[in-house]
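Worked example 3. Consider a protein that binds thymidine-5'-phosphate.
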Amino acid sequence: MKHKGWFISIEGPDGSGKSTVGAYIEKQLTEEGYSVLFTREPGGIEIAEEIRSIILDPKNTAMDQKTEALLYAASRRQHLIQKILPAIEEGKLVLCDRFVDSSLAYQGAGRGIGIDAVLSINQFAIEGHFPDLTIYLDLSAEAGLKRLKDRVFLDRLDREALDFHQRVTAGYQEVLARFSDRIVSVDASQAPEKVAADALDYIHQRILT
Ligand code: TMP
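Given these inputs, the predicted complex is written out as structure tokens:
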């Protein structure tokens, strides 16, 4: 039986505008009468926040890449169990800024662990709870990093060099091809209103029919 609510994730490289576009989508779907939970990993869940702050602390340069992948998966599981699944069970539409595909692209491709290896630890963590639909905000690594320039604080991953971010965007393309029935791609170089409108078209066509 299909679950009661919906689960949508938004993905993309750093600087692709996920939070701005997500806020537009949240507003529009709320106006349409859906009960929307807009969350982001780690989603305000204390245990997950604590894990995440260890991962992103710029001083943790000694962190092993597989440790990083395992910690993201651990944080994701806690967010899923404590917040996402209960909301879906209540019939809400959960809109999540980043989910499993971020790990496939950043740790699998960016860090070079391999998409299959990272997928397997995430399968253990999420037990089949993939999003119903994933919106990929398609933007080059160069354009994304240019947008980050004005940010006051850059976390440990934002600070990685361009070649890391290029491996991430290439990784996302591989993930898109592999999960083509779940992931749709939107041109994120457009104005945020237009990016959100394109995303909403997909949401209506694919899951809110
Ligand atoms: P954010 O900027 O979207 O909040 O994400 C923080 C950083 O963490 C960003 O550079 C992407 C990275 N990240 C991963 O490397 N793997 C993951 O699984 C997630 C969720 C984020």
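Take a moment to read the result before moving on. The mean pLDDT is 95. The helical segments are 18-31, 46-56, 65-89, 100-110, 115-126, 141-148, 162-178, 192-206.
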